[in-house]
Amino acid sequence: MKSILFGLVGVLLMGCQQNPPSNNTTNESNIDQKVEELLSKMTLEEKIGQMNQYSGFMDFTGPQPDKGRAANKLEHIKNGLVGSMLNVHGVENVRAVQKIAVEESRLGIPLIFGFDVIHGYKTISPIPLAEAASWDLEAMKRSAEIAAEEASAAGINWTFAPMVDISRDARWGRVMEGAGEDPYLGSQIAKARVNGFQGDDLSATHTVAATAKHFAAYGFAEAGREYNTVDIGTSTLYNVVFPPFRASIEADVKTFMSAFNVLNGIPATGDEFLLRDILKDKWDFNGFVVTDWDSAGEMVAHGFVKDGRAAAKQAVIAGSDMDMESYHYIEELKALVEDGEVEEKLIDDSVRRILKVKFELGLFEDPYKYCSEEREKETLYNAKFREGVRDMAKKSIVLLKNKNELLPLKSSGQRIAVIGALANDKTSPLGSWRIGADEETAVTVLEGLEKYDQNTYSYSKGADVVTGETSFTQELNINTTDKSGFAEAVSTAKSAHVVIMVLGEHGLQSGEGRSRTRIDLPGVQQELLEEVYKVNKNIVLVLQNGRPLALPWADEHIPAIVEAWQLGTESGNAIAEVLYGDYNPSGKLPMSFPRHVGQVPIYYNQKSTGRPFLPSPGEVFWSHYTDEKNSPLYPFGYGLSYTTFDLKDLTVENTYADDGTVTVSVSLTNTGKRKGKSTVQLYIRDEYASVTRPVRELKSFEQAELEAGESRKITFQLTDKDLGFYDNNGKFTVEEGSFQVFVGEDSQAQLSGEFQL
Ligand code: NOJ
To answer: Dmax over Cα atoms in the chain, in whole Å?
Structure first.
């Protein structure tokens, strides 16, 4: 594919060269004025061109368009009919395409190059869900900075991240790309990531424009099935879905991406309420909105509009500024304006927004500013990035169980059996959505362990997770029934002091288009685990997965369980450091882990029903399942450490009437024998309100690293923004009444107090 594009580039570069009037822009500060000047020179066609985004031919991140259309792309750039390209990366490629826009189109307006830099470009950080488990906002910001620095050195100036969709459904494959189930944590993380990508100065060469996506409610696809209908209530929309988007705007995010789904019967891309009333009017967002891949066109399939022309019209009226890969803007908008069906002022508004971001990036001053071959060479895979992603990886690991202190491992004199295909897989730890990365570039668990200490290791695969070719765009073959490796695995395990079993999902088993109905260990891995357990009970189960899994058997039988997600390039090194206790695990789950898939969607901040949630002996009329508990296997916010912490002396000082604050403090003590980090979480319950409130809501958290025996007072301040909520008209309100407050190390915290507003 690459050659098709660049063969054409060569031909097109022979075209005539014009003087781009706006490219000589000096450092004048008034971007708005520059935008107006440029806009006044543009023809209607050129304006619509700015609203058109095409995918290059290097990677496909959506269904492939038909070839006839694809062939015109470079010609369109030359004719000023393209404002942005996605999926063109690498300095040589970006420069070649940019050159056409800048030197051959009439106005020479530079293209903005978008790419899915989701958790790294070449050097890969943990998947976003794993990073969220760190609850470490600085580390996540740093991870986004690394991604921006590396990607921008390869010509990219716009990332389609962060995904800020809240989701409560582990069946949905894209939970790996978000920050989990909680709107408060999700909002803090959204800000950290936007700040990391965009930095303090968007025009610097090492920063990129970010995208808050997918607006809105994509994470609530019914039954977790990808692209499915969303039908949620207003209260959830305002209080759960919107907050991380709002937070992204507070962090000055430059772009939004609309969602594929319908929300209450309206496709998000054509939803005037979402894009215009809420985003652009109420929230005053002044960046631009890009559609998702052909989501404008998909409004036809949704049964919302009759054809491409109607789709273009509806999307523009709703507020979608740039069209990704549907072709309907470029094919239909001109006639729609000329026929009086779309007002030109809407086009102008979109173009202003797009040009503004291009000016802010500094593309008019130097359209090739991200195109230094030298910088690219020095930057990609730079060792300093490895350190950063390794730090992020360690912090993302969650210790789920550690009976009899099987962990940390003794550093010498041990025979250790390492079992599982994932233990030796150099690609899976990269996870999904890392399309710029090179395959086989992750450090495996086996590699990480072998170079770490003096123990003796023997490896046995046991069983595959998937079979055959694996690729981002192709369905995986999950029919793995082959147990022929079991015997060897069992015999390897028999003579070992400790068995490390690395089980879970293939790296591409989560992500877009990867919904699952079963959220257990895929293939025959569960059977493998049970067979090995029969001969050696000293098992450390290291999980690699892109979503919460339901593993009740493992929880009951396996003494030590480590949630290691997909941790990116430095995966094996980070895992070894944690298993040997040189890093004391501190991660906390950003999503509830169910006991059974039938409990999904399961989330801690649920509403109370009218009936009891806990068993009433002998009663049947309470809110429950007859065959499973209500509680999750591991709750939101949960994660162990090699040390232990105690929280006590909760006090509430209510000075709300005087200064609008409620101050909650607790005393935290490290009661174990090692230094460790605790994430102290504060939850509230508004006991009654004009719209019912969740049984618990996270409102603050603080991380504290304490030496063994050390104590520290932790203080939280709650104000209106924590105590109020959005009513069903979207109005933020703080109501009088009784509140409970809980402080602890997970969402089931017992230490509590109360106050009145
Ligand atoms: C589809 C995905 O939903 C979106 O998140 C991504 O950014 C675009 N494709 C572009 O690759």
So the answer is: 85
Confidence category of residue 22, pLDDT binned at 50, 70, 90: very low
Task: Give the pTM.
Answer: 0.96
The mean-pLDDT minimum among 5-9, 308-312, 626-630 falls in 5-9
The tens digit of pLDDT for each residue in 382-392 reads: 999 999 999 99
Mean pLDDT of 236-247: 98
3-state secondary structure of 106: coil
Sequence-ordered list of residues with C-beta below 8 angstroms from that of 14, at least 6 positions apart, any chain? none
Question: Of all helices (H) and strands (E), which one includes residue 211?
Answer: strand 211-215
On the CB side of 423, how many CA atoms lie within 13 Å of its CA? 26
* Mean pLDDT value across residues 411-430: 97
pLDDT tops 80 at residue 369: yes
pLDDT at residue number 68:
62
Could you report the per-residue pLDDT of 675-722, keeping only the tens digit for each? 999 999 999 999 999 999 999 999 999 999 999 999 999 999 999 999
CA angle 727, 730, 733 (to 5 degrees): 50
Q: Which domains does the chain have, with CATH numbers?
A: 392-599 (3.40.50.1700), 645-756 (2.60.40.10)
How do 84-86 and 112-115 pair as beta strands? parallel
Q: Whose CA is nearest to atom 11 of ligand 1?
A: 61
Segment 1-15 mean pLDDT: 35
Candidates 59, 116, 172, 432: which one to mutate for ligand 1, based on the most atoms within 8 Å of Cβ? 116
Kindly report the number of other CB atoms within 10 A of residue 445's CB atom.
Answer: 29
Contact assessment for residue 169 and residue 183, using Cβ atoms and an 8 Å cutoff: no
| Residue 612 binned pLDDT confidence (cut-offs 50, 70, 90) | confident
Task: Give SS3 for 661.
Answer: strand
| pLDDT tens string 106-137 | 999 999 999 999 999 999 999 999 999 999 99
Length of the chain: 757
How many CA atoms lie less than 13 Å away from 735 in the CB half-sphere? Answer: 16
Contact 334, 44 (CB under 8 A): yes
Ligand 1 atom index nearest CA of 160: 7
Distance between CA 475 and CA 479 in Å, rounded?
12
673: CA distance to ligand 1 center in Å?
47
Nearest to 411 by CA among 461, 457, 459, 458: 457
Phi, then psi, of 148 in degrees rounded to 5? -65, -40
Strand, helix or coil at 390?
Answer: helix
How far from the centroid of its chain's Cα atoms is residue 17's Cα? 42
The confidence score (pLDDT) of residue 67 equals 61
SS3 709: coil
Distance 335 CA to ligand 1 centre (A): 28
Ligand 1 midpoint to CA 451 (Å): 38
Contact (CB, 8 A) for 719 and 656: no
Catalytic residues: 292
| Ligand 1 atom with least separation from CA of 214 | 5
User: In the structure, which protein residues have their CB atom closer than 6 angstroms to any atom of ligand 1?
Assistant: 61-62, 86, 116, 160, 213, 292-293, 512
